[in-house]
Amino acid sequence: MAQGKFSEKVVRLRCSVCKHSNYTTRKNKKVVTRKIELKKFCGWCRAQSIHKEAKK
Questions:
Q1: Which fold would CATH assign to domain 8-54?
Q2: For 34, which DSSP code?
Q3: Structural contact between residues 52 and 45, judged by C-beta atoms closer than 8 angstroms
Q4: Going along the chain, which residue ranges are E strands?
Q5: Would you kindly state where each structural domain of the chain is located, as residue ranges?
Q6: Distance from first CA to last CA of the chain, Å, rounded?
Q7: pTM above 0.70, yes or no
């Protein structure tokens, strides 16, 4: 897939409790410079926890 002119990148979200990568999302790196933190459901922990952006 060609990259094109868009500045959106796909990032992985990792659970802060069990450290499993459960979700992926897109992030516009020109607009959002900080790391993303979202409260999501973790299937490994079986609870809602904070998921942070992880390195690839």
A1: Rubrerythrin, domain 2 (2.20.28)
A2: S
A3: no
A4: 8-15, 21-28, 37-42, 47-54
A5: 8-54
A6: 18
A7: yes
